[in-house]
Amino acid sequence: MSRYNNRKKVKNNNEQYRTEDIFEERGVQEITQYQTPKFRRLTEKEYNSVSYQRHYWRNGDRFWKLADKFYGDKTKWWVIAGFNFIPTEAEVEEGQEIRIPTNISIVMGLFT
């Protein structure tokens, strides 16, 4: 199941892109982008019902690398980010505990 299946697409013709020549370089008048998803926050009961492994963030870690290591699928990075309520890697500090859900299908079902 791809996280893009039900994602809304938006047309972006923002002036910022025009001044940076992105449209001209691509030969387009607008860019189609996926709208940023908004995951529902898991309830405390749902969150506590999911088994997980602990991982302590190290220099060089990325959500996609962790997803590849633990799930064999780097495209599932968003499951780890969402489960930890961390929108981007810039929000993670070295040594911070990251919880890696052990049953990815259960967590993916909770987010839908």
Summed up, the helix count is 6
Spatial separation of the terminal alpha carbons:
11 Å
Class by alpha and beta content: alpha+beta
Q: What percent of the residues sit in helical stretches (DSSP H or I)?
A: 25-40%
Task: Determine the strand fraction and express it as a percent band.
Answer: 15-25%
Helices and strands in order:
Elements: E1 9-12, H1 15-19, H2 22-26, E2 31-34, H3 44-49, E3 52-56, H4 63-71, H5 77-83, E4 97-101, H6 104-111
Antiparallel strand pairs: 1-2, 3-4
Helix pairs in contact: 4-5
Could you describe the 3D structure shown?
With 112 residues, the protein is of the alpha+beta class. It has two domains: 1-38, no CATH class; 44-111, no CATH class. The chain has six helices and four strands; from the N terminus they run E-H-H-E-H-E-H-H-E-H. It has a two-stranded antiparallel sheet with strand order 1-2. Strands 3-4 form a two-stranded antiparallel sheet. The protein starts with 8 loop residues before the first strand and ends with a helix.
